[in-house]
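## tool: complex_structure
## caller: assistant
## args:
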Amino acid sequence: MAQHHVVIVGGGFGGLAAAQALEGAGVRITLIDRRNHHLFQPLLYQVATAALATSEIAWPVRHILRQRRDVTTLLATVTGVDVAGRAVLLDEGSRVGYDSLIIATGARHAYFGHDAWEQFAPGLKTLEDATTIRRKLLTAFEAAERETDPERRRALLTFVLIGAGPTGVEMAGAIIELARVTLRGEFRSIRPDEARVVLIEGGQRVLANFRPELSDYTLKALRHLGVEVELGAAVTEIDANGVVYGGKRLDAATIIWAAGVQASPAARWLGVEADRAGRVKVEPDLTVPGHPEIFVIGDTATITMPDGKPVPGVGDAAKQGGKHAARVIRTRLGRFGKPVPFRYNHAGDLATIGKRAAVIDFGWTQLRGWLAWWVWGLAHIYFLIDTRNRLAVAMSWLWIYLSGQRSARLITQGDAVAMAREPAKH
Amino acid sequence: MAQHHVVIVGGGFGGLAAAQALEGAGVRITLIDRRNHHLFQPLLYQVATAALATSEIAWPVRHILRQRRDVTTLLATVTGVDVAGRAVLLDEGSRVGYDSLIIATGARHAYFGHDAWEQFAPGLKTLEDATTIRRKLLTAFEAAERETDPERRRALLTFVLIGAGPTGVEMAGAIIELARVTLRGEFRSIRPDEARVVLIEGGQRVLANFRPELSDYTLKALRHLGVEVELGAAVTEIDANGVVYGGKRLDAATIIWAAGVQASPAARWLGVEADRAGRVKVEPDLTVPGHPEIFVIGDTATITMPDGKPVPGVGDAAKQGGKHAARVIRTRLGRFGKPVPFRYNHAGDLATIGKRAAVIDFGWTQLRGWLAWWVWGLAHIYFLIDTRNRLAVAMSWLWIYLSGQRSARLITQGDAVAMAREPAKH
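## result:
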């Protein structure tokens, strides 16, 4: 009998956890991703704010799995799934057959039907997103230094974040720090600490998933740092020069979107039902209704736990989903036991606020302030994939802590080929 | 009397050295660059071959000069010079007047009249060039893993370098190492150590600027590593699928240009005479004929020493040029002494060959092998701009030395906005 072939699409937290949990299961695994790297998304905002280098939070999937002779890693873009023929379709027309399929393709940011906003307000999901935002942030200060019109200069030094979840809160704290500490004393016409950071949230509190007392603490801590927080303010317009919220217009050269996500098109590939955010509605064992051989996990799926709470779109839920899918496949192949439904175990929520404070909600207890900040930092270093990355991130943080200086303050412009098209260069 | 205003265009080795040498001269300085970072070009090939992160060899010019209250740094693209009106013209139409002007805008790679070759054979001068080459290199192995046609696979695993100066030699050694050490055991269909690295040189020896015995040593060392070196082979054609040299066609998916450079358009800005490579012919004091207030230094200028040798296009020559221009300005302002002509002092040539060998030509003595490699490594760490970069590069090298693993194996695709235009994504 041919060996059972598991195809995993996506090398993020979910896909990687599935591959790792299938070690020794006697299956053949093909992991397909259109990126060559696994990305540690929780620290992506630090690349966007020049604190970390791209390579410090990304590591080749192929390298992580190099010792697993049962795993083949493919860099390819999946374009669809032949559900009846049990094959994944790749960009250049080839097919990869499977016995079991695990889809863990994550989510992109979404603009609630306002796709035109993307060009003015980039979101933060990939390394390219992060370097785009980094370029926008740093270029705004540079342009302000050259600007002579005071109104235009004010707009250049206004940074708007839309959405006060962990990403919005962490970005706001990091941008204030960039302006007040890192860039201090480096400009001659502007004072970077005059920069305004405005965090706009449609709901009534920041970090809505946390306990109200932590939201209150975070709101106070953000305002203490100098972040202007606007609650209950729905954004109705975004253009190249600013944003309209709550009926008011705010001129700003830099607008960052941290408000909504949309699942990858797995539901379309499979021709199955999805919720409003594009997430596939899966069975309690994370399989697609009517297709026990197809699992959808992480941000690409939606599932409600027995206590009525939805599983949140966080890395840890994706990891647990990947492990669960692996367990179900093992159980089936072993022909013993009965697959149990997925039980999500929520370890906690955490977010940093600037350089010296954080909030952590473990459910059974809460932490805030500098102790939470240290726990946050150590936990993130611990969860990084590789010793090399742990060392590099620890060193970068130590450097920032001691000197205030961020080590990745690069304005790069993407592709050399694209740049060659620019008319003026010297 | 208004303070003497020195405008420096370019924040590379030359421009930075000029700014630093003008400290305390009582002048006002404006440094203009279209990049926000000073780039340590001698290690750029290590970014292209995934050994170093971009931020490890680049540092914001503004930050380097932050404590110099006499220096204003501007991120701007120069489009020309109003020589009669003594002003530099910027992209958005504004002018920056000067009393003295120092042009240190460097060079780009050039294709000897075959500009169409650039899209197939990128050169290596900027961070974007480096990430483009890194993407091409890493993607070739990934595509080979998926390729079923053996001929096409062979082309994907063939890496061609054109030009056997230090860049070509260093890249060749690094690519062989990437294939044989870093990627070992990570693929399932291909064996990365089957990769061919072909170094094509039109002249009769590698490292033509070095003593013949060091060229001989380097040739042997390269061949020992497994690099195929083709001497006296002129390239007559480059396209998307390969290269023609010496009448032979070689199919190769990755071609890298390390053969020629072209100075930035300073001669055109100034309306003065240039040599074939676009370099401005300057007076013995590095000023433009008829314009003692304009200096052109580094790769942008051409000048012959009293011994008849041209000043080479290396970082150290640019630094010495910058210092010289500063000295001339100081002498003039001090109204004492007589400006002396520029004297270039050649410290030596050096190049690495893979991981354990290098050649150094000091003129009075030569070094080769592992000792040269250590001298090379320590010298490069010493000359890096900042303590932070020194630590980071030292750590990256130590890691590669111990583990063989390169820490920046990222395939990134430039801009998030550009990527959004791609049709297929998940």
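## assistant note: Chain B has two domains: 5-34+76-109+261-334, 115-257+349-403. Chain B touches chain A through 77 residues (CB under 8 Å). Handing back to user.
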